Amino acid sequence: MKRWALYRIFIIVTMFARYIWTIYRFTRKNRPGTNNEEFERIMITIARDYKKKALRLEGLLIKLGQFLSIRADLFPPSVLMELTELVDKVPSSKLGESRKIIEEDWGTAIEDIVDDISPRPIASASIGEVYSATLKSNGRKVAIKVQRPNIEQIIKTDFRAMRLVIAMLRRTSLNKSTDLQSLYRQMVFVIGDELNYRTELKNGLYFKKMYETNPVIYIPDYFEEHCTNRVLVMEWIEGTRITDLDYLAEHNIDRDELARNLFLNAGEQLLFGGKFHADPHPGNVLVQSDGRIVLLDFGMIGATTADDMRAIQRILQSFVTLDYDAIVDGLEDLRFLLPNANKQNIRQAIEKAVTFYLESDMENIDTKLIEKVLSDIELLVRNEPIQLPAEFAFFGRAASTILGILQILSPKINLLELAKPMVRRWLDEEGKNQNRYLQIAGSYGARLLAFPRLVNDALSEPTRWRLFEQQKFSRVANMESLKIRQWTSSLVGIVSLPVSYTGYFLAHYDLMGISLAIAIVALWNGRRIGRQIVRIADEPFK
Question: So where does this one cross the membrane (predicted)?
């Protein structure tokens, strides 16, 4: 039944509608920033319910939960922890169903290509399953990754349901602080890529070339002639999870050296590679008996552009010169700020945090003061339209996952000392065609040149504030008028429906037709006015 399109859409939409209604009731009773413990309890309850339903329905919901588990800009840490625990493990399919997919894509019987295929999957997840086999052409043992039956149709159905959910969310306050359409596009892009195994093949070959001369990192071979959109064939790897400490002790593998190798190579990916492995959890990072690290599963890949890395460098330099306007501009260049973000509020929050750090005695700091500063920053992120772009969400996920592995392997590892040479080399390479001292001088010069503008802004502030209040009053009055019209239209439409039904029951077809026409026109008009209200609410103040 869970494969039926209408059933899945109904369950997903009603589930999210219930979540939205629960949060709406809470926000109606509590002002923003108050009763945070109760709000967090509600969010944890929602996350646990979602996790339960995702494991039952499978399909997109599991992947969506994993996608949202990296969105620290949307959810508190406790909710992210619940979503992180969403295990991508589902009951396996029968070999007969997978055999049909493999033979359709290969255009021949499985036995013509491989021998000794495992009767059941070695591993099974929401999108694909893995079988072991031996290639007849060269006798090499391989892993065959094949999509689950009907998964593409199930994912498409779930995306249709999510479009309805996004439409509901656009009528909430979340629409003001989050670019929901962008979030939906990111979700489609990321999860859609995992449905095309040729994309994973391309990513795997990219990293294979990157590490072809690296003695401590290994990427499995891929057999391109047998890879399709739904089937991926790669070298079978003997190894175990990198966090298996008993295995490391049994094979006398130096844990500190292993941690250093993992950190340095992850840093190379994040700072220099352009592309990086976005899901390096212990199941995708193996270690072999000789201490060599093996990276698997390149379905989820992040990427940073040269422009992004230069923007990050400019932000770091702006922190050195305390140029807060440049920091905010850098965040905007990196797509962290939505068009209607209040840059002045964001600048003040950054300045407050930096000033607090520079002027405080960190050894005798008041814990409550730290909590107050962090609370102010968190409130700013929640209230201002600040959104984490997908590529940087992946960047954060990859970094935090690697750090978690390092803490298991070598709890006393000095990451700062290891990172210094790499970061210095990155800064030198990024700025090799630029004179850093000229950059710093230019930064201070820009601040001096901006001084007359700041004075003019300060003198003009009372006038701008009066105009802002006038626009705000006019907008509120306009929206209240539209809401009354919308309520009236909806009431007329709702009342006309039972009248139309009465006409049908009494065989009074003129009454039925007129009432039905009135109901349709009234409800359509109510919907039109509702869209007009949303459009007015989304318009920035001039």
Answer: 6-24, 507-526
Rounded CA separation 491/522 (Å) = 8
Highest mean pLDDT among 59-68, 352-361, 383-392, 421-430: 59-68
Distance of alpha carbon 509 from alpha carbon 365, whole angstroms: 79
53-92, pLDDT tens digit by residue?
888 888 788 878 877 776 665 677 777 777 776 655 566 7
- 146: DSSP letter: E
Check whether residue 429 and residue 525 sit in a common domain: no
- The full 3-state SS of 183-220, as one line of letters, equals HHHHHHHHHHHHCCHHHHHHHHHHHHHHCCCCCCEECC
Provide mean pLDDT across the span 111-121: 91
Q: Please, where are the H alpha helices in 410-450?
A: 415-430, 436-449
- DSSP secondary structure code for residue 232 in this structure: E
How far is residue 207's CA from residue 212's CA, in Å, rounded to a whole number? Answer: 8
- Same domain for 448 and 468, yes or no, is no
Segments forming the whole domain that contains residue 77: 5-91+152-194
Among candidate residues 434, 460, 486, the one where a domain is terminated: 460
Last residue in a domain, options 167, 194, 221? 194
Asked if residue 130 is part of any domain, the answer here is: no
What mean pLDDT comes out for the span 132-150?
Answer: 92
Report d(CA 384, CA 177) in Å as an integer.
Answer: 6
Say which residue, 493 or 527, is predicted with more confidence. 527
| 326 and 451 fall within a common domain | yes
Query: How far is the first Cα of the chain from the last one, in angstroms, to the nearest whole number?
Result: 52
Whether 406 contacts 262, CB under 8 Å: yes
> Are residues 30 and 172 both part of a single domain?
yes
Output the pTM of the full model. Answer: 0.66
Q: Is there a contact between 130 and 143 (Cβ–Cβ < 8 Å)?
A: yes
125 within domain boundaries: no
Give yes or no: residues 310 and 403 share one domain.
Answer: yes
- Label residues 221-234 b or e (16+ Cβ within 10 Å = b): bbbeebbbebbbbb
Q: How far is CA 396 from the centre of its chain?
A: 10
Distance CA 503, CA 515 (A): 8
Torsions phi, psi for 125 (to 5 deg): -130, -175
CA nearest neighbour of 190 among 38, 301, 58, 325:
301
Neighbours of 514 (CB within 10 A): 15
403 is a domain residue: yes
Which residue carries 């701008």 as its tokens?
464
| 24 shares its domain with 165 | yes
Could you tell me if residue 279 is inside a domain? Answer: no
Q: Report the domain count for the chain.
A: 3
115 closest CA partner among 147, 92, 137? 137
pLDDT at 357 over 80: no
Q: Structure tokens of 495?
A: 């009342």
Residue 134 · residue 114 · CB < 8 Å: yes
67 with 185, same domain: the answer is: yes
